Amino acid sequence: MNKLKFIFFISIQVILSNNIAIYAQKQPNVILILTDDQGIGDLGCQGNPWLKTPNIDAFYKESVRMTDFHVSPLCSPTRGAIMTGKYPINNGVWATFKGRDILSSNNKTMATIFKQNGYKTALFGKWHLGDNYPVRPTDCGFETVISFKSGGIGELSDHWGNSYFDDVYYVNNKPKQFEGYCTDIWFNQTMKYIDKNKNKPFFIYLPLNAPHDPLIVAEKYAAPYKSLEGNKIIDANLYGMIANIDENFGKLNQFLKDKGLDENTIVIYMSDNGTRFGYNKNGKLGYNKGFEGIKGDKLEGGHRVPFFIRWPKANIQGGKDNNQLVAHVDLIPTLAGLCQLSIPKEMGLYGVDFSKVLVNPQQKLEDRSVFIHHRQDWRPPMDVDQTCILQDQWRLINGIELYDIKKDTKQKQNLAAQYPKLVQKLLTQNAVFLKKSKENAVYNELPVNTIGNPAQKEITLTIQHAIGEDAGIWKCEQIAQGIKNKNNIHSIEVEQDGDYLISCRRWPKECSGPILGIPIENPKKLFQYKTIQPQKVQISIANQIFEKEIKPNDEEVVFNIHLQKGRTVLTNDFVEGKEKFGVYYTYIKKQ
Fold it and tell me: Among 139, 249, 432, 433, which residue is least crowded by beta carbons within 10 Å?
């Protein structure tokens, strides 16, 4: 075979291979990209006058844009709602710490549905819905997972020493060293996965940790925006992180086209909540597309986010806007409608299927309300205070402030006195929703960490997720500095009767050191270590209290305790004189 014929032969083989990937399946592939803390105005295509996002802008022009799309104002509540199709108070995740960023174990997920319908499933990036069985992503329908722990790279529950570059991530729960920048890794691993699985329908959840702080990115991405810091924008690194996302998105989009997969792949680009560093509340820096409110707020900018979707094969394309009210809880029924997935009736979904308006913009959804309840605490969210109820153009905040968002994007004119019947209607709908929600066990029961299951022989508990009345603690730097925090309660489910070893530590196992000293290792020279001087460790569990002294070289204090099957609560403290503060790291395994 001469060289020309050989090249022709290989070219035909590549074309045929790609065409097979297209025509061998009727169901579309799905890629759901979820960015972290990217607000409604943090894109060029959303009108930002300084930020350059050419690849996402091009996708925007090819997509259907749901311009009135809403999420929760914080990341874990949004992620839980997307994955379960239930509002935060119905899936157990309404906070980002204190045990309320862990899914209740009876929840089925979006990944479970796709898997049961014959899809390959994978996650690359941020989960933040539980680090222990039975709510790790591998327990929740994802066959392939590359992720980090808890809510952010470098948090105290994550692998010690992670810093966005050259980190240790978890591949199906096993630690593995990676090289490069986190966002680059998530996208590169996504493309590698697609290349191996392109002949089967796949669902890929690509939840990025960027542009969440700490705002870390290679200098070349932030450099174009440095001159704007302090006079136009808050932080150039935020824009640099988004520029890096844009570059990676462009590579992924081109990859899909090169592989012949773009026509029959549903691609969604969205964010998990409002911006944090893209706009300040006095409006003097940044851009928020005319809205007030940032991450955590009930004002529009806290929960209204970009949502772009493209599926050329079904004519979901063309740069069209649709202004109907939709939300995170709608994604499961909508994707099920688009992909013809069967959904178990017992899932108890709260969202609506808006697939018909994607295919035909002339279609109208039935009138509905969207509810925003969340709370940074283990306690349930407030019934009315600290809430937002949405219907059409109306926003009822805290039960007493009513705004017409179409006419008043800054939410300055409270119309509650002018429309008392509408206020009462929305409050009544909220009361009905709450009554039904409070009948669910997850409203009052704490999500549990299961011990004694073969799927995870040893679980890790950290003070980041401990329940208590103290403020949140989540940074490795806080642990390195020996910051004391009184949160000390963990909800446990014992799956088997037996003897359990409970190891209480000052430092995580991967960077161990004496409880009264410091580790030998200081990965990447990130930390300034300080010592603490507790004399004892005290724990209580299953109506039993135990106490042991800490010896000078002890790296752990271990308790061997017999536990019976069932639910209980573990309380664990370092004791320093008359003061108690929560144990930083606890490891539990069955003997």
Answer: 432
